[in-house]
Each structure stands twice: as C-alpha cells, then as structure tokens.
Amino acid sequence: MMENRRLYSPKQIKEVLDKYGFTFSKSLGQNFLIDGNIVRKIAQGANITKDSYVLEIGPGMGTLTEELAINAKKVVAVELDRKLLPILDETLEGYDNVEVVYGDILKIDLKQLIDEKFDGGPIKVVANLPYYVTTPIIGKLLEEGLNIESLTVMVQKEVADRMMAKPGSKNYGSLSVFVNFYSNPQIVVKVPNTVFMPKPKVDSAVIKLELKDNLPDIDRAQFFKVVKAAFSKRRKTIINALSTFGFDVDKDTIRNALENSGIKAEERAENISVEDFIKLSTELPPLNI
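Structure (tokenized):
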C-alpha cells in the first residue's frame, strides 16, 4: 500500500468495501477506524518499534494493522469474520511482516500461538475491541500467564474510566481491582465516535495496560472471590457484604480478618485499595459456598 493511499482514508475504505460488497456486522460489533491521527497515536502509545512482536485482535480491513506493520518487526492479526480475509489479503499485500489468522481470540490457545508465531514472545497486544467482548478478552489476556508486555486497546469510554478508577470514586469496582492487580493502566487517547465507520453511539478511549513483572504470591481465586463478594452489594458495609454473600464463614471470623488487615468493618468496598483486598484475602480462611 502506497503511503499516499493509506487505509484510514474514508475514500480508500469505501472503495475497498464496495469492491468486495462488504457490509458491517452489528453482531460482531464492527466499527472501523477512519482517522489517521488516532491510528498513529495507538501505535505510538503502544511503543511499537522494529523489535516489537505484535498481536492484533480484530484487524477489520487492516487500517491499524497497516500502521503496526510499518513500525513493528512482526504482526499477527486474529480475525473472526471470514468475509474480511480476502479484503485483508489485498489491503496488506505490501507487507511481508504481517500474518492474518482466522479464529476466535477467546477460543485460540494463545500460549501456542505466541510460541509458534513469535518465538515465545514477549509480545505487545493491540486491539480495537468490540464492546460486547471487551471484558472477557482482557480477562483472558491478563489471567493466562502469557508472555505479554502490554495491552493497548480501544474500549468504550466508560469501561476505560472504570479500569482507571481509584478507591473512593464512583467508577471504582471489581473491574478496577482486577485490572490494577495485573497491570498499571494509563489512558493513551480519548476517541470521539466520529472517527469510526459506521459511527457508534458512544465515545471510546485507548487504554494501555503495562503488565506487572511480579504479582503477589497469593491464592488468586480466593482474592477474586473476596473482591466479587465485596462489590456484589456496593451499598452494604464490607462486613455485611462478605457475611451475606454465602461463604461458609461466620461473621466474627470475617470481623477479625478485617481488623488484622487494617480495614474498618463499616467501610464500603469502593473505598478499599487493591493492596488491602490482597491483605484481606490472606487473612480470611479458604472461602467456599
């Protein structure tokens, strides 16, 4: 693809889509970027260099893929819509460092893919995520212990706000704790709905999650049970939320664990830090329902 015919040109996009008779799928949450400035900011925010191995999720017609290919060592793009495969063959034909893989990112063995396509990594993940599968995809990427340096993903603005939220704010919840347990999040750029084709109803934001090198040596299943229970009834105090969730643990035991963690029994989950949730999960006995 010639530099003066970059894919983010709306005219270029329309020509390609008309040629293949492509129609957007609402069920797949397809919204293609048509703004070169945003495309460049995503690649820059992800710190893509000639040494970078990049896994892209949902390349669409290759608008962002092209920018990644220009800057990266190798790009593997996973696409779920078969109708886009011949389009990607054409739009990315000038780049020999790109490979498109057909498949569902939630079902693919990512460790095997990283081993086979990227010599084991480390990799950087970049994606314009469909809103309806944002949380499951991010969960899979963070939880599976993969050799990933960072995730730089386009998400709905309100989801980005929840990921970035700190204790004491109305957006702080279980997603905030989950993301901040595994990574250090930062906003790369806020994105208006006008830079997509078709235009979604809501604005977006690109968020970068730098994965932490060392995670606490704790029982993660226990930790996330505590977090889920704590936020299941946000208006309740932490002791009431935990004691009524259905755990086979009496209220006095919970009270002692809270005291040993330095958490007031009348505190609410939205005011408790990730570090304090970690302490609490280690003070409580094994939680079973």
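The longest strand covers residues 148-156. The chain is about 40% helix and 20% strand.
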